[in-house]
Amino acid sequence: MQTESNQHSRLFTACCIALTVTSMTFAIRAGILTQLGADFGLSDSQLGWVNAMAFLGFPIAVMAGGVIYNWIGAKNLLAVAFVCHLLGLSLTMAAEGFWGLLISTFLIGFANGAVEAGCNPLVADIYHSQKTTMLNRFHVWFPGGIVIGAILSKFMTDGGWGWQAQIAIMIIPTLAYGYLVFKEQFPSTHNIETSTVENIKGLASPLFLFMVLCMTLTATAELGTQQWIERILGASGASPMLILALITGLMAVGRYFAGPLITRVNPVGVLLGSSVLAFAGIYAMSIATGGFVYLAAILFALGVTYFWPTMIGFVAENLPQTGALGMSLLGGAGMFAVSMWNPVIGAWIDGAREKALLAQATGAEAELMAGHAVLTNLSLFPVALIVCFSGLYFYMQRRHRPSADAPVFSE
């Protein structure tokens, strides 16, 4: 038993490092967007397409990985992630223009999706009696890696390091998780549904389809806002990378201690409260300048902290028949939505800036006005979520009313 526990701990560590690499790519890409635009002469709309490739590669990998997980297992999916991370990072450093960035960023996004496809069901399986809690603890390392990446990007940029060096530094943790993946034995799957036929049947559930819709909104509210933080808040008088580090640092702490909150409030209540706070945070950032931006960012962080892992945990707990496929498709739908919205967000920035300039705003004023306008648009996503999760809350209450003596949500 002790040996099995140690094995599970090492595998969990490998998953956490792999997710750290995933989130570092997110943070460092956000930090170098201005450099990429300057070096390659790219507009914000073109940068939006570069961002979109990361979020497009992710759902393709995570959906494909969900379909084949029952046949190839977590180990092979993480091996694919390792190879694609190395290849994508190397090709990014060698890129000479727009198309090179598109291809290399797609590969990185594909690697990130393979990590998610392999690790979520692995964690749910080896910690089957604490699915939502351990998935939240695993997903500590998405914001945790963003903190690391954001701080590295800020200090390397301030120190005159080019964007290539910032990409190269991510190879170190990539090699670390690759070593663990190839070294460790992975257990057989015992505690999640492994019949692909049953998984596919489970996908037809109206509740699952509803959660997929909600995931497109939660992912865009969280990741669409964070990915553009440098462009949206660059003229606000606050440091965008420090804001990103603040947001994701709070998210990491919140997810690590998520267990008691999930148990006391229940997942749907957490999601509904998160939506309210996310709206308050995005709206506050859309009118704030200077030091007040940091206060608004704290509200935003409290709102988006539990979105991603609690959505996956809800499906794992309440729709277990969907298995690894359900968890993967849910995550894939979220990232696919972000990939589609990224060019739109970039176009919003270009359009709002042009409108501000036509209104005789100066360069800095135009950037600030554009950022605030985009944040106002983004605040509509959590508004929609408030409506959706309110409905889900009452639905789940009615669904479990006949068995009031039993706990509604179990850990």
Q: Brief description of this entry?
A:
This protein is mainly alpha-helical and 411 residues long. The protein has 18 helices and no strands. The protein has helices at residues 2-40, 44-94, 98-126, 131-138, 141-158, 163-168, 171-183, 196-203, 206-227, 229-233, 240-256, 258-265, 267-285, 292-304, 307-318, 323-358, 363-378, 380-400.
Describe the structure.
83% of the residues lie in helices and 0% in strands. With 411 residues, the chain is mainly alpha-helical. It is globular, with a radius of gyration of 21 Å. The chain starts with a helix and ends in an 11-residue tail after the last helix. Mean pLDDT is 88; it is low at 403-411.
* H and E string: HHHHHHHHHHHHHHHHHH
Reported by name, the CATH topology is Growth Hormone, Chain: A
Give the number of DSSP strands: 0
SS-based class: mainly alpha
Number of domains: 1
Q: Which residues sit in consecutive blocks of at least 5 with pLDDT less than 50? A: 403-411
* Percent of sequence in beta strands: under 5%
CATH architecture identity = Up-down Bundle
Into which percent range does the helicity of residues fall? over 70%
The end-to-end distance, rounded to whole angstroms, is 21 Å
C-alpha Rg (nearest Å):
21 Å
**How many H/I helices?**
18
Largest sheet: none
Q: Name the shape in a single word.
A: globular
The CATH superfamily title: MFS general substrate transporter like domains
